[in-house]
UniProtKB/TrEMBL annotation:
Gene that encodes the chain: sbcC
Keywords tagged on the record: Coiled coil
Taxon lineage: Bacteria, Pseudomonadati, Bacteroidota, Cytophagia, Cytophagales
InterPro entries: P-loop_NTPase
Stretches assigned to coiled coil: 186-235, 307-341, 375-437, 529-556, 603-651, 708-735, 761-812
SUPFAM superfamilies linked to this entry: P-loop containing nucleoside triphosphate hydrolases
Keyword RNA-binding in record: no
Pfam families assigned to the protein according to its UniProt record, in alphabetical order: SbcC_Walker_B
Record's protein name: Nuclease SbcCD subunit C
Length: 1009
């Protein structure tokens, strides 16, 4: 992860929006963020954590967000842009914002937290978390990328279990946790083994001997089947021949039965044939003439009815035409009055126009009457404003000029002097506190040094004296132990008997009693000596820590004194400028500022008043001009309307007729006009319609007369034609042998289907010829007439018996063949199963061994320990340089950190025994090594590391060594950021951001470039 830009607003001491541009900072490789204590340096890291993970290091996620917001801000907003991913190829933006509840100051609404990715020149929202983007949790991020205050040595202080879990999550070692997968594979393999054993148990009786026996039986059955098949084939041919004769015999019997039926139907067919011939003759020769007679009679009846109707309509049309012509004469007289009536309508419309113009004239008079007094009043007000403006401008000219630049400088200098006084007061308080702390530290060191015995020059000589007393006590204890061993054999010494040790027969000075009390006393003395050494070591370490603290406080005191001197010099510079302007005290300065501000306020008020009066004068002047233009327009319109009114009155033709309408309303006149116009239009329309109706009626009358003449002529012609057709019909009856007309009419109406009857007769005759021919043909064929059904049935039964025997034999052969095929498949399957079973047994054995290895995450712990050892080796490259090859780090089998002390024979001791500065060095080296591994894991060409801890605990030499180490990281393409208030670092680092706490703006970020 490489930071690009951070925007902070409303977080902790950041009241106003501040932008931290990391582009030039990270380009330097090593940069710093410096500022006084409480200026807001560490809040930058808090903002990054908040933007990425939605929570800070100082406050919990719930219940404490109120304290996170600046007390003078209503919301917090953080925008963080950074690069991440493989080779840091992708650019992301995180937006975090939260607002206070406007009704409840202490309550903060739920925050909005969104990530964006720069794609195709736009920020696109993405549904990812910081863990997915960066590939690590917040806790690991704080131990490898950004290390806040108080968290620097957290990795060292972790117990082996959580440390291994961290390595597992950080480097993805869960891929080595193969216990579950191995167990699953082992269970699957066991299940497979059981399945194979079950299958092999079912194939236990399958072998080569059984297969050979079955094949021999199959060969014998095959010969028998072939013999039976030949015999059955011959019998089948005989049955097939008899089946053919049986079919022809049955066919002959069928034709004989059909011939008998045909002979029975023959008389009825002959009768139908006779009726069919008579029907055809009547239909062909007489029916067409009879149908014409019927049609003509129908036409004659229709003509008579039509003629009668025409005679009746002739009288009706004559009467209707007479009435229509009378109505037409009346309408035509009324229509002739149209021009006179239209002229009156035009006069009435002019009356309406005159009334409208009269109303407009009245309105124009009203406007002029209203505008004249208004214009006079506004001109009077305009003159008053003019006089007031002249008076105000005179007052403005009389006011003295104010130098705004000088006033701004005075205000700035007054603020600076006040700020410097407050800073001096604050620094003096801090200086007094530091003096008290320094005195306390000196007193504490003196008190501890007083505990050194007067005979000893220092803690070191005291320690050496204490060390020397222990070997003497150990020698005394050894002698007493030997003496105690000899005393245990005193009861074996008897005069005249040899000593078990020296062989002497005499024992003049035998030991008396066991020296156990003396041994116990010496042991207590040794323990007291050891405790004394521990106490000396503890006192020595305490003095060392107090001296380090004293040195730090002295440095801080020097820094405070320097700051106080700098502020006093700034004060002197400000007063030098003020004295040159004749201002000798802060009271004079405030009075000058107050007087200048009062003059400026008065001038501003006058200018504002003049501007307001000027605007009012301009608006009033504009309004007067507009009112005068309206008055002129109204007067001109009045003249034009009066002229137009007179012209309209002169255009009226019948003034006497219109005189009565001048008193009426335009609406009532319009109603009158509409009524007259409607009557004119209706008269014209009715006249036109009446003329058209008369024309249509005359046309219908002519058509009716023509139709009457036509119908009378048709009656005569049709009657003559009927007589001719009746003579022709009688002649045809005689010609074709018909005596009765009723007989013919019955034939005409007969339902006989001639085509169907003809087809039936032909079909009967054709079928009779075919059946007779087939009977003769079958009787002539040999064996058909003498066929025996009983003999044929007996032959079929014999064939069926032979077929059943053949089918049974074939079935036995088929079953045996299938059994042989099954045995061959089972034998092949058994061979394959035995091979697979052997492989599964080997796999089961191997998986059991692997299960033992992977059980209890053993393999993960093993790999984790490898990573930790490699991490330790990488850290030692820097740690040994920092400690001048006197110390190195080591990890044991339990993943516990140890320190190898080369100044004490290379012996090991716990990492917790290191001093504060040494612990910082070890933590720094481990953190750098861990960050380096994360960089390699992410396949990034650059990595970023931010440190906010520990430099105040280092002496100058250690600080120099650490700084050289950090500078060397630039050659490894590593970016390191440092947050500190230590001045030595600020002097060494050329590129840095400076955070200052402004009383009004809050924390303000500046840069060294």
């Amino acid at each position: 992860m490489i930071p690009l830009k951070l925007e902070i607003e409303g977080l902790y001491s950041y009241k106003e929006k501040q932008v931290v541009d990391f582009t030039q900072l990270t380009a330097a490789g090593l940069f710093g963020i410096f500022g006084a204590v409480g200026s807001g340096k560490s809040s930058i890291l808090e903002a990054i954590l908040l933007a990425l993970y939605g929570s800070t290091e100082r406050l919990s996620d719930r219940g404490e967000k109120n304290s996170m917001l600046n007390l003078q801000s209503e919301a917090v907003k953080i925008i963080f842009e950074f690069r991440s991913g493989k080779n840091n190829a992708h650019t992301y933006r995180s937006l975090y914002s939260a607002k206070r509840n406007p009704k409840k100051f202490e309550e903060v609404k739920p925050a909005e937290h969104t990530f964006y990715q720069w794609e195709e020149a736009v920020w696109t929202p993405i549904d990812k978390s910081a863990e997915e983007i960066l590939g690590m949790k917040k806790e690991h991020f704080k131990q490898t990328v950004i290390i806040p205050q108080g968290k620097f040595r957290e990795f060292i202080d972790l117990t082996p279990g959580p440390r291994a879990d961290m390595m597992k999550e950080l480097f993805g070692l869960e891929r080595f946790d193969l216990a579950a997968k191995t167990g699953s594979l082992l269970r699957t393999t066991k299940d497979e083994k059981i399945r194979l054993e079950t299958q092999l148990a079912g194939l236990e009786d399958v072998n080569e001997a059984t297969l050979s026996s079955k094949k021999s039986q199959a060969q014998q059955l095959a010969l028998e089947v072939e013999h039976k098949r030949e015999a059955l084939k011959l019998q089948g041919q005989l049955v097939k021949s008899q089946e053919g004769l049986q079919g022809k015999y049955h066919e002959l019997q069928g034709f004989l039965k059909e011939w008998k039926l045909l002979e029975e139907k023959k008389p009825a067919i002959q009768e139908k044939k006779t009726i069919w011939k008579e029907f055809l003759k009547a239909k062909t020769y007489l029916k067409p003439v009879w149908e014409q007679i019927q049609e003509k009679k129908l036409d004659l009846e229709k003509a008579k009815v039509s003629a009668e109707n025409c005679r009746r309509f002739r009288e009706t049309y004559m009467q209707e035409l007479q009435e229509l012509e009378e109505e037409e004469q009346q309408l035509r007289k009324k229509a002739e009055l149209k021009p006179e009536r239209e002229a009156k309508i035009r006069d009435l419309r002019k009356v309406i126009d005159i009334q409208v113009i009269t109303e407009e004239v009245n309105a124009a008079n009203a406007i002029t009457d209203k505008l004249l007094p208004t214009i006079a009043q506004e001109k009077e007000e305009l003159q008053k404003l003019t006089d007031q403006l002249k008076e105000l401008e005179q007052q403005l000219e009389e006011l003295p000029m104010v130098d705004t630049n000088a006033l701004a400088d005075w205000k700035s200098q007054a603020t600076s002097l006040q700020r410097m006084e407050e800073q001096l007061l604050k620094l003096n308080v801090e200086q007094q506190k530091l003096i008290q702390i320094i005195n306390n530290l000196k007193a504490s060191i003196a008190t501890i040094n007083q505990q050194v015995p007067p005979s000893e020059a220092s803690f070191l000589s005291w320690m050496e004296t204490q060390k020397k007393s222990i070997p003497a006590l150990e020698a005394q204890k050894e002698k007493l132990i030997q003496k105690a061993g000899l005393a245990a054999h005193i009861h074996l010494l008897h005069d005249g008997e040899p000593c078990p040790l020296c062989g002497s027969l005499e024992h003049p000075q035998a030991l008396e009693g066991e020296p156990s009390e003396e041994i116990q006393a010496i042991t207590q003395s040794m323990e007291q000596a050891q405790k004394g050494m521990e106490r000396i070591r503890s006192l020595q370490e305490t003095v060392k820590q107090e001296e380090i603290r004293l040195e730090g406080q002295l440095q801080q005191q020097s820094s405070l004194a320097s700051n106080i001197q700098q502020i006093k010099e700034e004060q002197a510079g400000v007063w030098e400028k003020l004295n040159a302007q004749g201002i000798a005290s802060l009271e004079n300065l405030n009075h000058a500022i107050q007087q200048a501000e009062q003059t400026s306020i008065s001038k501003t008020a006058l200018e504002k008043n003049i501007k307001a009066k000027r605007q009012a004068w301009d608006q009033l002047q504009k309004r007067v001009i507009e009112q005068e233009e309206k008055l002129r327009a109204a007067q001109q319109a009045l003249i034009a309307l009066q002229s137009k009114q007179q012209a309209k009155r002169e255009e009226i033709q019948d003034i006497a007729f219109c005189q009565a309408f001048f008193e009426k309303t335009p609406a009532s006149i319009v109603v009158t006009i509409q009524k007259v116009q409607k009557d004119i239009d209706e008269t014209a329309s009715l006249l036109e319609g009446k003329v058209k109706v008369i024309q249509d009626t005359k046309t219908k009358q002519a058509t009716n007369l023509s139709s009457l003449q036509h119908q009378e002529e048709a009656i005569v012609a049709t009657s003559s034609r009927i007589e001719q057709l009746e003579q022709e019909f009688k002649q045809l009856m005689v010609t074709h042998g018909f005596e009765s007309e009723e007989q013919l009419i019955a034939l005409f109406h007969h339902s006989l289907d001639a085509d169907k009857v003809d087809a039936e007769i032909r079909q009967f005759e054709d079928r009779s010829l075919l059946v007779n021919s087939k009977i003769k043909e079958l009787e002539a064929e040999e064996g058909v007439v003498n066929f025996s059904q009983e003999g044929f049935e007996s032959l079929k039964q014999q064939v069926q018996v032979h077929k059943e025997a053949f089918d049974a034999l074939t079935k036995d052969f088929t079953l045996l063949d299938k059994e042989i095929i099954t045995l061959e498949k089972q034998l092949q399957e058994k061979t394959q199963l035995l091979q697979v079973f052997s492989q599964v047994e080997n796999r089961e054995s191997n998986l059991k061994e692997l299960e033992k290895l992977f059980k209890g995450s053993g393999f993960v712990k093993y790999v984790s320990s490898i990573y930790l050892k490699e991490l330790c080796n990488t850290a030692n490259i820097r740690f040994m340089k920092l400690t001048k090859n006197s110390l190195s780090l080591e990890i044991d089998d339990n993943n516990t950190f140890w320190v190898v002390d080369y100044l004490n024979g290379g012996k090991r001791r716990l990492l917790k025994t290191l001093s504060g500065g040494q612990t910082f060095q070890a933590s720094l080296c481990l953190a750098l090594a861990l960050a380096e591994k994360v960089k390699a894991l992410n396949q990034a060409d650059q990595s970023f590391f931010f440190l906010d801890e520990g430099f105040g605990a280092l002496d100058k030499n250690s600080l120099r060594a650490v700084f050289e180490t950090l500078k060397s990281l630039r050659h490894e393409n590593r970016i390191v950021g440092i947050i500190s208030h230590v001045e030595e670092l600020q002097q060494e680092i050329g590129v840095y951001a400076k955070v200052e706490l402004d009383t009004e703006k809050g924390s303000v970020v500046g840069y060294s470039y």
